[in-house]
Amino acid sequence: MGRISVVFLALLVLTGCATTSSAVAPDGLTLSVYQNRTDVAARKLEVSFLNDTGSVLTVTRLQLTAGQFIGTAVWPKESTTIPAGVTISLPVPLPDPDCTAEPTEAEVEFDYRLADGRAGTAVATPVDTLQRLPGIRQEDCLAVSVASIVTVTMDAAPRVSVIAGRTIAEIDLTLVPTGATGSVTFESASSTTLLTPVSPDGTDAIPAPISRTIAGADEPATVTLLYSPNRCDAHAIAEDKRGTIVPVAVSTTDGFSGPLYVSAADDVRDALYDVVRTACGLPTG
Fold first, then answer.
1. In this predicted structure, which of 28-32, 197-201, 232-236 has the lowest mean pLDDT?
2. How far apart are alpha carbons 265 and 222 in whole angstroms?
3. Across the strands, what pairs with 64?
4. Angle at CA of residue 191, ends 189 and 196, nearest 5°
5. Can you tell me the distance from the alpha carbon of 190 to that of 117, in angstroms, rounded to the nearest whole number?
6. What are the residues facing 88 on neighbouring strands?
7. How far apart are CA 208 and CA 198, in angstroms?
8. What does the DSSP 8-state code read for residue 204?
9. d(Cα 53, Cα 125) in Å, to the nearest integer?
10. What pTM value is reported for the model?
11. How far is the first Cα of the chain from the last one, in angstroms, to the nearest whole number?
12. What is the pLDDT of residue 196?
């Protein structure tokens, strides 16, 4: 065999072993985004990879961009391997919201390597399961609007009372105006997975009316909410994720409205768990 033929064969071998690069995701790979219940408070989004490529897939970098966020959501790990036929979800912490920008469709950019030799950087538009991204924008921008006018906290220890035979936790929302222009109307408070609102006579009040408007130039104020346990199974506390995050219906003069999710401070959360345990006859502590 001549020298030219040998060189040609060597080039064929090298070409066959080389990886290919494409800006398009490999055939058989489906991306979607969603949120678990634990992701909401942690402010994360799950990017899900369904690997039907027929080959083992390794992801070595991932980032998500969307017009509703400032900057890029970056997956904090170095790599993960997804067997063929398997779905794996990768959580990405979300950046701060950008409520002045027009929302745009999310895009996921990732580096990948397939066991069959294909590799590269791909950009894909993920399926937004249950249209969660518009919901996140609404919640984000409502929270930004409220915070610019009133700081809302739930960090005072709940008081325990008994009304009409029901054990009640009296929970204070502390409202501290920022001095900005505008106002926030606190309309009502709803149930959580663990607590249900009650009226001053001990009957159910779902939702419990608040009907309080606080302007940015007002003095600090306190709104007291009455809650009672709405379930007594022991695993409700052991597996709780959002039971002490109170949804409060609000509207602002900026034009935003919807549920504002107010999280209990750590010691308040633990005290509320004890209220539920006591009311349900479960061991406390």
1. 232-236
2. 16
3. 73, 108
4. 105
5. 54
6. 49
7. 7
8. B
9. 17
10. 0.82
11. 84
12. 96
More confident residue, 235 or 160: 160
Query: How buried is 27 (Cβ within 10 angstroms: 0-12 exposed, 13-18 middle, 19+ buried)?
Result: exposed
- Whose tokens are 């709803």? That residue is 190
Peptide bond preceding 158 in cis form (omega within 30 of 0) = no
Decide if 103 contacts 67 (C-beta within 8 A): yes
Per-residue pLDDT for 13 more than 90?
Answer: no
Outline where the chain has alpha helix (H). 3-17, 37-42, 132-149, 235-238, 266-280
* pLDDT the model gives residue 22: 53
Nearest Cα to Cα of residue 127 among 24, 31, 62: 31
Three-state DSSP state, 200: coil
| CA atoms in the 13 A half-sphere facing the CB of 167 | 17
- Give all domains of the chain, ordered by start, each with its CATH number: 20-125 (2.60.40.10), 143-280 (2.60.40)
| pLDDT above 70 coverage of the chain, percent | 92
